[in-house]
Amino acid sequence: MKTVLHGALVAALFASCGTLLAQEAQKTPPQAQEAPSVDSIIGTLKTDNAEQSAGQTRALRPGAASMATTAPAPAPVATKPAKPASINMQINFEFNSDRISGSSENTMANLAAALASPQLQDRKFTVIGHTDGKGSAEYNKALSDRRANAVRRYLVDHGVASARLRAVGKGKSELLNKDDPFAAENRRVEILATGG
User: Which of 65, 148, 154, 177 has the smallest C-beta neighbourhood within 10 Å, fewest atoms?
Assistant: First the structure.
């Protein structure tokens, strides 16, 4: 009887520990997420994403060059413009502040290294700050401006030429998760390739 009770007690303890560990895993804050690597940032921002429209061909068919003198030129195929390369980054700030949290140090260091890399040296970027839906539009716009400028300052201080960076705040006007306006993923900084 003692062995059965002892076994049941041990099983109950393991079950409760498992539940506590699962609850702790769900509470893991966004800042505990792994920072994107320098190479992944470079790969995302290196080139714009040109989308081919349906029906666009990649090569001429054999013999097309010899027919060019007798056949009328085909009408140009409309193509979609290249979508500017961009990346959304979860950069944490102190509450109600434009001070970048220490938990985002690796993310910021990798971002600075990527933007200063030879692969991206000819590109210009806009740093766009976004907030969640809590608070007034005016307040969130001002806060997102300050946070975008804080990221820009950090990048300049870490080797990215200031002429290559522009900062803009969008406030809560472009929520990433519209179904949950207060979700953490709405509080983000977007890096948009704007030239080069």
Answer: 65
